[in-house]
Amino acid sequence: MTAGVSRRRLLGYSGATLAAGAAAGAGLVSVAQAGADHGSADDAAVPFHGAHQAGISTPVQDRLHFAAFDVITDDRDRLVRMLKEWTAAAAAFTGGHPYGSAAGGLGEAPPDDTGEALGLPPARLTLTIGFGPTLFEKDGKDRFGLKAKRPAALIDLPHFPGDDLDPARSGGDLCVQACADDPQVAVHAIRNLARIGFGVVSVRWSQLGFGKTSSTTPDRQTPRNMFGFKDGTRNIAGTDTKALDEHVWASPADGPSWMAGGSYVVARRIRMHIETWDRTSLQEQQDTFGRTKGEGNAYGAKREHDPVPLDKLPADSHVRLAHPDGNGGVRILRRGYSFTDGTDGLGRLDAGLFFIAFQRDPRKQFVPLQSKLAASDHMNEYIQHVGSGIWACPPGVRKGGYWGDGLFS
Ligand code: HEM
Q: pTM of whole model > 0.85?
């Protein structure tokens, strides 16, 4: 298989060679790295290997498919084999390649790759893996001999006031966050990982997101959430290495060593009561955040990115409560998406924000922040947290390594 064969170019390519590549697994990784023959920058491939996993400080893509998996085997070796195969597949997908044969191979067998991404560019696909608390210990059982390696920061999240969490949309031994500028590319990746994992993992729940609600690129236009407000104005920028080191990447001193360079992700499915919000006056809407709806400037400030004069914002406004100045400097990297999953049977949109936040230690960041918001945020009249999960995302994969090699070695 020649280096740099993209999905776009792959139609008509010989499946036999690809199947051999799939069997080799690691071989595909190197092929994927070379996949730089893509047209516009927007179509480009995001490098899979590196010190940190892609999909955290990476400029936020337009679409999300987030999946939580349960491990359904007790066989540690099978799990490790699957993680190695997932890694090879993830490197292929993010490089714009199918994993194995998509449209060739034996006529009698299903193709290795399901094929719906053939001909599509990589669309800046990133795949980010996380390990949940239940992978380390479930019902008092050390299923895979990992209990001693569980990071102290990978806590079981406490119950917050107002939570109405659906267990079927919460938790998971593993998670994979797929982000891409094309939803079909993101969905293809999750679908094929689930397929590769057959017999080892099963999808516990998953969430599609269609509009980014946060940006890691402050120089670009800030996206808006389902309430119509700019969201992500004061997020951590993906280029701000100092802030990333301070607030996002786990350091070797934080322990355990296998998490150095990794990060902890908290995901919350937050339902937004759209119909109530839409009957709310502009003044009330703006007071809820302490920012204007048009420009997005904080009360008492002129422009969107001007410093926030906290004392000018209503005491129970979201921004006043969440701002670092009122929280001992605490910051998180938000990377959430809007969702609309049809209606709820009562004529209301099942819509909201799939909140995703990366951080160095949830005990010091998400938990205190959310405790404060759950207790006092004016926005609670219009939202409810209905799903939740926390996972430890290991550092990036080095060439020749695999997702979680530090944990399982
Ligand atoms: C549906 C739920 C939510 C909505 C609609 C929402 C919306 C917003 C908006 C419009 C802003 C102002 C613009 C900005 O700086 O990004 C903001 C800021 C912020 N939000 Fe949220 N948010 C939600 C949930 C949360 C949660 C659960 C947390 C954390 C536990 C959080 C933490 C923050 C932080 C840290 C800021 C930046 C504050 C600053 O530095 O000034 N938000 N949010």
A: yes
